[in-house]
Design brief:
By secondary structure, the protein is α/β, with parallel strands linked by helices. It has 2 domains: about 1-160, Peroxisomal Thiolase, Chain A, domain 1 (3-Layer(aba) Sandwich); about 170-325, Peroxisomal Thiolase, Chain A, domain 1, CATH 3.40.47.10. It is built from 10 helices and 14 strands. The protein has helices spanning about 10-15, 25-30, 45-60, 80-90, 105-120, 140-145, 210-230, 250-255, 270, 280-290, and strands spanning about 1-5, 10, 35, 65-70, 95-100, 125-130, 150-160, 170-175, 185, 205, 240-245, 300-305, 310-315, 325. The strands form 4 sheets. A 6-stranded mixed sheet has the order 5-4-6-7-1-14. The chain has a 4-stranded mixed sheet with strand order 8-13-12-11, with helices on both faces. Strand 12 (about 300-305) and strand 13 form a beta hairpin. The structure holds oxa(dethia)-CoA (UT7). Oxa(dethia)-CoA binds near residues 25 and 29.
């Protein structure tokens, strides 16, 4: 695994200087203290390259025969960012594509990577989750500015043996397009193309927080439970829940419903906020680096995001050292 977060820290107090919000509100309602934000000119691809380099270093080889980049904030609307990232890390020629499943992107990518490996179409897959939401947020919208941060996390996957630490034991994914408006950038796509007269607000990311919250808790609980069933584990046997870092209240509601004590539920959003597709790999790497996640630990992942999309995965933690770049 490899990770990369921007150097620039934006605290809740920093936001309160130009938005009608407060450190107390943001902490109480979300658990977030600060987030990392890229400086102008730094792109999602730049963070993805660093995280990918860290992952290849951690894996002990620069080789991969497929690159998947989960992101909603590509460097350009066209083409995909993954081929550029692949070329920049010395993987010119390998297949590379972007995957768009918003905050569930890393779990969708994990399922894709496993499918490529199981079918024999790839041997080593470099999976990256990277987002720079600071580039799509409305600067005047306190309901989103307080939540999101930028970052990237990457993982190298390879074929292994049943029972080997690192085994992906179960994955489940889902979606419901009827919820498309809950999380959206309303304009600038083919439905309201850039040639039309666009509104200033419509080009920015918008989220109906309360509704997202409700669906997120329900779908994350269901997906985590299903992933556990697919792995043949009982929930009581799970060592760690690493849920998408959307909101500390969502994580504790999901943990409570799964009857997992708080100390088994990973939280790093206090320092990073919601980093979208990067949030699960960043939380995994932090938990592993802190020694909370140890080889063989039964680890349950779950996420909910725009689309709406959701997913769950069960894996045993491998014996690896994540590299932060
Ligand atoms: O990553 C994809 C998944 N995303 C999520 O899972 C996010 C899920 N949603 C949430 O985490 C929460 O809904 C939020 C943190 C976004 C909002 O918390 P909430 O407790 O659901 O608040 P709310 O939306 O019901 O808003 C309550 C009040 C509103 O004011 P009025 O209308 O009651 O006057 C908001 O305008 O809080 C206001 N508010 C704020 N006040 C101060 C919303 N954001 C802020 C803010 N500072 N940053």
């Amino acid at each position: 695994m490899g990770t990369s977060i921007p150097e620039q820290v934006v605290t809740n107090d920093d936001l309160s200087e130009f938005l009608d919000t407060s450190d107390a509100w943001i902490r109480q309602r979300t658990g977030i203290r600060e987030r990392r934000v890229v400086r102008p000119g730094t792109s999602t691809g730049d963070l993805a390259v660093l995280a990918a380099e860290g992952a290849l270093k951690s894996a002990g080889s620069g080789e991969a025969d497929l690159v998947i980049l989960a992101t909603t904030t590509p460097d350009h609307p066209c083409p995909a960012t993954a081929p550029d990232v692949a070329q920049r890390i010395g993987l010119t020629g390998v297949p590379a594509f972007d995957l768009s499943a918003v905050c569930s992107g890393f779990l969708y990518g994990l399922s894709c990577a496993a499918g490529f490996i199981r079918s024999g179409a790839a041997e080593r897959v470099l999976l990256i989750g990277a987002d720079t939401y600071s580039t799509i947020l409305n600067p005047t919208d306190r309901t989103t500015r307080a939540i999101f941060g930028d970052g990237a996390g990457a993982m190298v996957l390879r074929a292994g043996h049943p029972g080997e630490p690192g085994e992906l034991a179960g994955v489940t994914l889902g979606s419901d397009g009827a919820l498309r408006d809950l999380i959206t950038i309303p304009e600038g796509g083919s439905r309201h193309p850039v040639g039309d007269e666009l509104t200033a607000e419509g080009r920015y990311f918008t989220m109906r927080g309360k509704s997202v919250y409700r669906h997120a808790v329900q779908r994350m609980v269901e997906s985590a439970t299903r992933a556990c069933e697919l792995a043949g584990w009982r929930l009581s046997e799970v060592d760690h829940l690493v849920a998408h870092q959307a909101n500390a209240r969502i994580i504790s509601a999901v943990g409570e419903r799964l009857r997992l004590p708080a100390e088994r539920c990973a939280v790093n959003l206090d320092r990073l906020g919601n980093t979208a597709a990067a949030s699960i790999p960043l939380a995994l790497a932090d938990a592993a680096t802190a020694g909370a996640l140890r080889p063989g630990h039964r680890t349950l992942l779950t996420a909910f995001g725009g689309g709406a999309t959701w997913g769950g995965a069960a894996l045993t933690w491998p014996d690896i050292t994540p590299v932060a770049v």
